[in-house]
Structures are given as structure tokens and as C-alpha cells.
Amino acid sequence: MVPQREFGTLSSESFLISLVERIDKLLLHDGFRTKKMSQEVKSLEFWRSLIAECLSTFFYVFLVCAVNISWTGSLIGHTPNWIVMSLTSGLAMAILTQCFGHISGSHVNPAVTCAFLVTRNITPLRSILYIIAQSGGAIAGAALLYGVSIPGHQGALGIALAHEALGAGQIFGVEFVLTFLIVFTIFATLDINRKSMGNDSITIGSAYMVCSLTGLPASGASFNPARALGPAFVMNKWKHHWVYWIAPITGSMLAGLIYEFIFDSRKSKTLRDVIDDIDKDCNDDHYDEPEVKMTNKTIMGFPLSDYLNTQPRV
């Protein structure tokens, strides 16, 4: 192993990990803005990200809608538990973000994709193909759930059902506000100007869970046009379906724009600033050295451990 040189209270390995993480976030923020669409389609990363979005949305819709299904063989007396549904939504999103975040950003949601589009974090081509992949994955997830559930006992197959006393405008308001909060949380979590305050996946998953607890009794807590599309397409039920597209998308775009132009100063963040921030952390007597987990860190696609090992990589 390379001898550890100390940067303040940080070892060289921990310093390198911190540097890679922050550079990676800078690249994620600015990379798509400079890459032309003609170059983008030629990269393997682009097509891998489309597959990741399709798979992640497939799993999300299958899991979230499955908790609405009666597995006892009877629909009589079956009432989906809002707490269970909220936990499923939040934990599923946390898991999928952890699994696919480094590949595609783990949007799993056309509304999130639209927010990244209007803030110029992704290209129009990528956003269109993301939404197509997400929609296809959602329909496939709902179709598989319909096929494996007890015949005649699928119920509404997890379609987001609003309270009967609410009109389209009221449903729109609930979906708009709660989607705004979710997307604002995502942008805040990805802000490199803030110190890490925990696992990003858990933070995003918690936002989905809390908003689901609030929205389920009112709008049905979709927050996701693809999640609304999947079961609606399979069951051919389209009541208020337009609301579950327009409200989340407008709410998410507003959240992205507000954070980008009011709260986010990453545009002025340079590599020199990143290194200076880490040096400041190194000299902070109260700074806790992060745990080194080489297997989860990569540089240009290669394991970080390769760069910390004296043996040359073949």
C-alpha cells in the first residue's frame, strides 16, 4: 500500500475519496451541459443510463402498487395501509437511488427528469428518452404485477385514487406542493456546497415517505407521472389522469428553478474551491475522518483501490 501522508487529520486515502466525491458531483452537475447530443448517443454510459431508468421505474411501480393488492384471496375488507404504502414508497426509492444513482442519477420519475432538463443539467435528448424508458418500465412493472396477482383480486392495481370529495383542482394543488418538496429535497441533497449530512439515498427516500403519508388520504400520493401511468394503462382507468402528469411536472420544474437560481451557487464552484474546502476540513479539529470504503468508489470507472495500490493495474 502507498504510505499514508496526513492532510491535517485526514489520511491520504480519505483525502482522495473526498476529492473524488466532490469532483464527481461537479461533473454530474456540469457534464451534460457541455456534451453535445450527437456525442452523447455514442457513449456507452448514455445507453446504460436508459436501461437503468427503465429497470428502476419497473421495480418502483411493481413494489409500490403491490402493497395495494389483496393477497388473501378476497377483496372484502381489504383496505391498503397508508403507513405501509408510505414506507414502501420511501424505502423503495432509497434502495433504487443507491443501486442506480451512479449510473443514471436514478430519476425514476419523469417529473424529476423535467426538473433537471429546465435547469440544464441534462440534454433534451436524454430527458425525452429517460421519460420513454420510465414510462415503459412503469407499464411493464404494472403488467407483471397484474399477471402474478390473484385473478379477479387485483382491485385498482395501485392506481392513485384521490378522495372522492376532491376536485381536479384540489388534487392538482396537493400533487404540485408535495412534488415540489420532493424535488427541492433532491436538488438540496445534490448540492456540493453543503457538507454531507448523511446518506443521500435515505434523505431522498424519506422525502417520498413523508410526502406519501401526507398525500395518500388526499390525492393518492403519486408525485410521479410514470407511477400513475403504469397501473392506469393496464387497468384502462384514466380518471383525472392528466392531473398526475401536469401537477408533478410543473411542481418539480418550479422547485428546480427556484433552487438553481436562488439557493444553488455551484455554478461558481471551481475545482480549486473544492480542494480548498477539503483542506479546510483537514485543518478542522472537529472533523471526523470518513470511513474508507474503497469498493464503492471509482475514478473514471476503475476502483479507487487500484489507485491506492502499489501494484500496477493490468
Explain briefly what this protein structure is:
This is Aquaporin. With 314 residues, this protein is mostly helical.
Describe the overall structure.
The chain is mainly α and about 325 residues long. The protein has one domain: Glycerol uptake facilitator protein (Up-down Bundle), CATH 1.20.1080.10. About 60% of the residues lie in helices and about 0% in strands. The protein contains twelve helices and two strands; from the N terminus they run H-H-H-H-H-H-H-H-H-H-H-E-E-H. It has a two-stranded antiparallel ribbon. Helix 5 runs antiparallel to helix 6 and helix 5 runs parallel beside helix 10. The two termini are about 15 Å apart. The N terminus and C terminus are likely disordered. Belongs to the MIP/aquaporin (TC 1.A.8) family. Keywords: Membrane, Transmembrane, Transmembrane helix, Transport. Its main location: membrane. InterPro entries: Aquaporin-like (IPR023271), Aquaporin_transptr (IPR034294), MIP (IPR000425). It is found in: Membrane.
H/E element order: HHHHHHHHHHHEEH
Q: Low-confidence spans: pLDDT under 50, at least 5 residues?
A: 1-9, 289-314
Which CATH C-level class is it? Mainly Alpha
Q: Mind describing the biggest β-sheet?
A: 2 strands, antiparallel
Known CATH architecture: Up-down Bundle
Find the structural class using helix and strand composition: mainly alpha
Rg, rounded, reads: 21 Å
Strand order in the largest sheet: 1-2
The count of DSSP E runs of length 2 or more, i.e. the number of strands, is 2
Q: What is the total number of structural domains?
A: 1
Residue-averaged pLDDT: 79
Shape call: globular
Task: Kindly estimate the percentage of residues that lie in beta strands according to DSSP.
Answer: under 5%
CATH superfamily: Glycerol uptake facilitator protein
Separation of the first and last Cα atoms: 17 Å
Q: Examine the coordinates and then state which fold CATH places here, giving the name of the CATH topology.
A: Glycerol uptake facilitator protein
Helical element count?
12
The helix fraction, in percent, is 55-70%
GO cellular component, one term: plasma membrane
Organism: Tetranychus urticae (Two-spotted spider mite)
Membrane topology: Multi-pass membrane protein
Protein name: Aquaporin
